[in-house]
Design brief:
The protein is of the alpha/beta class. The protein folds into 2 domains: about 240 residues, Type I PLP-dependent aspartate aminotransferase-like (Major domain) (Aspartate Aminotransferase, domain 2, 3-Layer(aba) Sandwich), CATH 3.40.640; about 130 residues, Alpha-Beta Complex (Aspartate Aminotransferase, domain 1). About 35% of the residues lie in helices and about 15% in strands. Strands 3-9-8-7-6-4-5 form a 7-stranded mixed β-sheet, sandwiched between helices. It has a 5-stranded mixed β-sheet with strand order 10-11-14-13-12. The longest helix has 20 residues.
Length: about 375
Amino acid sequence: MHIDPSARFATRAIHAGQSPDPATGAICTPIYQTSTFVQASPGKIIGEYDYSRAANPTRTALEANLASLEGGRHGLAFSSGVAATGAVIHLLKAGDHVLLCDDVYGGTNRIFHRVFQQLGIEITLVDMTDHDATRAAMRPETKLVWIETPTNPMLKIVDIAVLAEIAKSAGAMVAVDNTFASPYLQNPLRLGTDIVCHSMTKYLGGHSDAIGGALIVNDDDIHKRLKFIQLSEGAVPGIQECFLFLRSTKTLHVRMDRHCENAAKVARFLEAHKKVEKVLYPGLESHPQHAIARKQMRGFGGMITIYLKGGLAESRAMLETVRIFALAESLGGVESLIEHPAIMTHASVPADQRAKLGIADNLVRLSVGIEDVDDLIADLERAIG
């Protein structure tokens, strides 16, 4: 089945990269649960597959689907989001310099600083909402600028087009972690970046039942290099996971519309609550980068960060009292989750860096699901008191 690249998002989400099975006519891409493929003669493969670490038809369909959703030419699937991140860092060599967004997922911070820095990769953290500071931090040896937007957990919005221009003028590649926005809300490749990274575990998967990561690129050479890294390291998803992600991308647009709608209502409720000190949500006019979010996003997502009045005791009481919101790490599933970044997702970030970013004891992060929003608000009202 050929899908025109100009087809609208919902059509591509359901059909891109997938055709009915030629053997049976099955509408869903089969799970090719095989590690190897028979060859016609030594070195002469049948079709394009010889070993599933290199490629598998189910994974190929997923990678094509992801590329279409991001408006890219090439997609690559990995066993997790940090595996995808690691593949990008492997494009560098000792002595290269990375400009890293200061407010990133704790696992991203950890892999850069505790795994790759010891191998000679130099890293500078910078607040990328400050364009002058970003320009000043660039060096001749800067080879990669890693952006996360919206950031985790402070929900900063980085102007992707401006940062891409800054990086390109210095000869550096630009990668964007687009996990919080998903391809439905934001397409960084169309804003001048080189690589888009996703933790598919989150919104792309959407059901809290599979772990995976993805990279999407346009440049053929970058794709060739990343494909070699994927093949050589072997951090690829299982075929069952690929099937589940293909199932999930078909409803991404429907789910994201509901996530955005619910989060907007929850954010406004929390902003008016007497026991909430501050609400960070890109869709609120009070958000410092609200105008940038409106410019580069189609919607504002399902993530909210709040500061409760009080400290750890008040946060803990709320987190232990919610009934519909589940106290758990991760995000982006159909069910609502809530967590304490300083203790949970960002505990591996050094304490002084957490303090500088504002990841305090009274900070709570919410992943607003697609339940009835009135029930979610009632749950928060009861838990906050």
